[in-house]
Amino acid sequence: MDRNNPLNKENKNDSSSSDATILVNDSGVIAYANSQACVYFGYQDHELNGIEICQLIPEADLENTKEGMIIHQYGQHRDGRSISLFTRVNSFFLSEEHYYLIAFQVVKDRSRLNKQQSYPLYELVDLFYALNESTIVAFTDSKGKITYVNKKFCEVSKFSQEELIGKDHRIINSGFHSKEFMKELWRTISDGRVWQGEIKNKAKDGSFYWVDTTIVPFLDETGRPYKYLAIRKEITDYKRVVEELKKSIHELMDLEFALDASSIVAKTDRRGIITYVNKQFCRVSQYTKDELIGNDHRLINSGYHSKEFFAELWQTIAKGRVWRGEVKNRAKDGSYYWVDTTIVPFLDGKGRPYQYLAIRHEITKRKTAEEELQNMMTKIIDVQEEERKRISRELHDGIGQNLYSHLITINRLQSEISHPLIDQMLGEATAIIEELRDLSWALRPSVLDDLGLIPAIRSYLVRYSEYSQINVHFDCYLQTRLSSNKEITIYRIIQEALTNIRKYAQTDEANVIIREIDDEIRVVIEDFGKGFNLEEVSRGVGLFSMEERARAVGGLLSIHSVKEKGTRIVLEVPM
Q: What phi and psi, each to the nearest 5 degrees, are found at residue 332?
């Protein structure tokens, strides 16, 4: 390689780059190293040229290293010392020769590194982007002078970057915290330990704001901090609410009264034993306070929900998270009622629930109306399918047979008389019969009733692929026939999904997968085409029809789609 070529000159003159760079040929021999690389390894300029890379970085495996991957490795200094490095490798061809460009930096903070640790570059970029977008970030040097602030810091403090960089954090000191508070903070981070706490700061316009703060010291090779990273989350609203709550005990009492008057309220201890119920609870459940307190909620269990339903409920609240859902309960007289329920865990100082507050609103009338609507939709779907079946039969057995008789008559006439109009009539009659068959098939394929779901789907896919020029891969494992309404549901949803793929996906391939898993049939229809954003697309008649059909047989339909990556529809139907 010519050391005077433009690539060498460009690299050599790039003294502003913070990365050390080494250029290695396909044989593992260094063709070029910039000044920074020479300094890191203890060599003079050009002394590294011609040396094998394994002498400097024994662990280097250029051929098998993924491009763009940042890897932690150890280098060998000229004096024998081990150097901790972050390296990144990219390869390229120049004048038909293969080269590797290694960029690296010496690692100062060894305290948190594990050997052989690697990071995809895009993940580091994404993490830094997410941190910058969601939190207030600042770097300071070992003396506390600000060296970097992000936009969030400027937005909240109302200072510009120019006004902040070079200053220390006294520029935003509110005077709220004592000297001992600040001394304890500095003692912690100076010892190389992370500090966490809440700080009240003052913005440029004199307003105050609170931040939940974490300060992480970066340590050099001797274990001493050489810079600090401060990550803050603004909690001004939270602190204001806390202060307001301290002053609003009477308001809380009024709220409790209003809650008791309008909602079904119960408290339980951490084991679920009822410790308090209000009048609304007693009215709806028809139990007295004495009958409820000391018992758990199994007293009003309707048996409607599965064990898994309640296991998920308890797992959620036991972890200190709020649970929301609809529950069907049974009153003392045996009648059932529905409640829209929110269960809020109360946490102790260690973050563990010590009691639970359940707030419920009765929704029995709404649920009854929903059930009636669902029953009505199921009946409509059944009636629609029966009507499709009837019309399909009439088209096939009535009009279709009559047209076929006419076709025979035209054939006989053609054998006796030769005329272009007869040929035209023959062609038109044949086309009409074919269209009629297609229409009859679309309405209700007879094979679905006669032979079952799988033959019907296979037959449909053949027609579909011929018409749409989309190759559909069909993978099915189903040992038994299903009930008629479930087979029709699965068939119609596959039909509707493939129609949408033909219209919108802009693809030439799709998959249809049917699996029998335990007591459930799982159907997947997927393509790898255009895709769409679920939030941006209105829910049309087709999607509504698929969801209603799934609900009518006790199934669940879910749709997953990503732009330019395709769409995946999953139908789960109980056996």
A: -60, -35
DSSP 363: -
Residue 80 tokens read as 């024998």
- Angle, to 10 degrees, between the axis of helix 453-468 and the axis of helix 420-443? 130
Measured CA to CA, the distance from residue 59 to residue 89 in angstroms comes to: 13
Contact 529, 562 (CB under 8 A): no
Pairwise CA distance, residues 295 & 552, whole Å: 37
State pLDDT tens for residues 468-522.
Answer: 888 989 888 877 788 877 888 888 888 888 888 888 888 989 999 988 887 888 8
Asked whether the beta carbons of 572 and 528 are under 8 A apart, the reply is no
* φ, ψ of residue 483 in degrees (nearest 5): -65, 155
* Nearest alpha-carbon partner for 483 in 517, 513, 457, 521: 521
Please identify which residue in the block is written with the tokens 């459930």: 520
Q: What average pLDDT does range 418-428 have in this prediction?
A: 81
Tell me the CA distances in angstroms from 420 to 408, 410, 417, 423, 427, one per residue in order. 17, 12, 10, 5, 11
Q: Cβ contacts of residue 535 below 8 Å, gap of 6+?
A: none
Query: Which tens digits make up the pLDDT trace of 63-97?
Result: 888 877 778 788 899 998 888 888 888 888 877 88
**Spatial distance between the Cα atoms of 21 and 258, rounded to a whole number of angstroms:** 70
Half-sphere exposure of 73 (CA within 13 A, CB side): 21
The stretch 94-120 carries a mean pLDDT of 68
- C-alpha closest to that of 26 among 57, 58, 53, 56: 53
Residue 482 and residue 335: Cα distance in Å, rounded?
34
The pLDDT score that the predictor gives to residue 533 is: 81
Q: In the structure, what pLDDT confidence band is assigned to residue 199 with cuts at 50, 70 and 90?
A: very high
| Crossing angle for the helix pair 484-500 and 453-468, to the nearest 10 degrees | 10
Torsion of CA 469, 475, 480, 486, to 10 degrees: -50
Specify the pairing of strand 509-517 against strand 471-477.
Answer: parallel
**Six token digits for residue 167:** 């200053």
Distance CA(90)–CA(69), nearest Å, equals 9
Tokens of 346: 């109360």
Tens digits of per-residue pLDDT, 303-352?
999 999 999 999 999 999 999 999 999 999 999 999 999 999 999 988 89
45 is written with which tokens?
Answer: 């300029």
Spell out the SS3 assignment of 444-466: CCHHHHHCCHHHHHHHHHHHHHH
pLDDT above 90 as % of the chain: 33
At residue 331, the pLDDT reads 93
Query: Would you list the DSSP string of 201-227?
Result: EE-TTS-EEEEEEEEEEEE-TTS-EEE
* pTM higher than 0.90: no
